[in-house]
Amino acid sequence: MQFSAAEIAQIINGKLEGESAISVASFGKIEEAKEGQLSFLANPKYEDFLYTTKASVVIINNALQLKQPVSATLIRVPDAYSAFALLLDKSLQLKTSQLSGIQDPVFMHPTAKIGENVYLGAFVYIGENAIIGNHVKIFPGCFIGNNVSIDENSIIHAGVKIYHDTIIGKNVSIHAGTVIGSDGFGYAPQADGNLKKVPQIGNVVIEDHVEIGANTTIDRATIGSTCIRAGVKLDNLLQVAHNVEIGSNSVIAAQTGISGSTKIGKNVMIGGQAGIVGHIQIADGSKINAQSGVSKSLKEPNSAVTGSPAFDYTSALRCQAVFRNLPEIEKRLKELEELVKKLSGMENTAT
Prior knowledge:
- The structure is a single chain.
- A hairpin with a 4-residue loop joins strand 39 (about 305) and strand 40.
- With about 350 residues, the protein is α/β, with parallel strands linked by helices.
- The chain has 3 domains: about 5-95, Udp-n-acetylmuramoylalanyl-d-glutamate--2,6- Diaminopimelate Ligase, Chain: A, domain 1, CATH 3.40.1390.10; about 100-315, Hexapeptide repeat proteins (UDP N-Acetylglucosamine Acyltransferase, domain 1, 3 Solenoid); about 320-350.
- It starts with a strand and ends with a helix.
């Protein structure tokens, strides 16, 4: 499907510079784009490519001052990266909106309720009393358990497994291989040394506009709900344990593990490979650096921590600077010790 520069400018509310009728049919990186493709420039490091790119249309920031002529048609916007992301989203919506109908084979329990304009790929399983909302897309090989509810416009990618009683809101995207609602990790030590499994009878609740990456696992609650609040973005390969709550619009990068019953606030940012112990609270707006180990609650909103165990980010940087200088500090300490010995010897001789 082709769009003219004028149509694109209208979608992103941009200002055109160049030929408005020129059209594009695909996207390309600014350093590799070909004629007939749309690209963007947001990072100043790539500005030189603007003057050599073969892209037909390039989205740029309003503030960019051109250093030389450009062959492409330009569309100026306040934020080129966000505008390009909007266009990518629109393109994806066009592609997925064309998917509808039920492929063969699909199993649907007679009690399941299926909305309008739904797409069910081959080998999808829909359990008893499940509710699939309007315009939901479920790709091949997915398992949707009993009493699961998936609200309208959500997309469940290939191979996702959603256990019983899970509730999923509107406009949720769950990527391939993710498991929602598996048992929480709960065992009671017995007098004989054995571990008795604690039944996990709660569920998982995922609110609207959440995106969950590939091969992430979110455990069901022991009692109550594991909650992923509206607008949360989860990367690939996360472990979210039972009864965890992640506040709205929080962002968590890959390979992070969150232990049971931890409550994470709103607008929290967590870097990759972070580890968070159970039964603590992370205040709104907290920032946790990659590979940090958080062992106690972060009570101060908008604080930043790093390290293992994690502590204040600025203090940690100072400690790292000292650590790098330890060999030199050790050398100077030994020299001072030698000097003290000599001075002490001189005092003893004088007396």
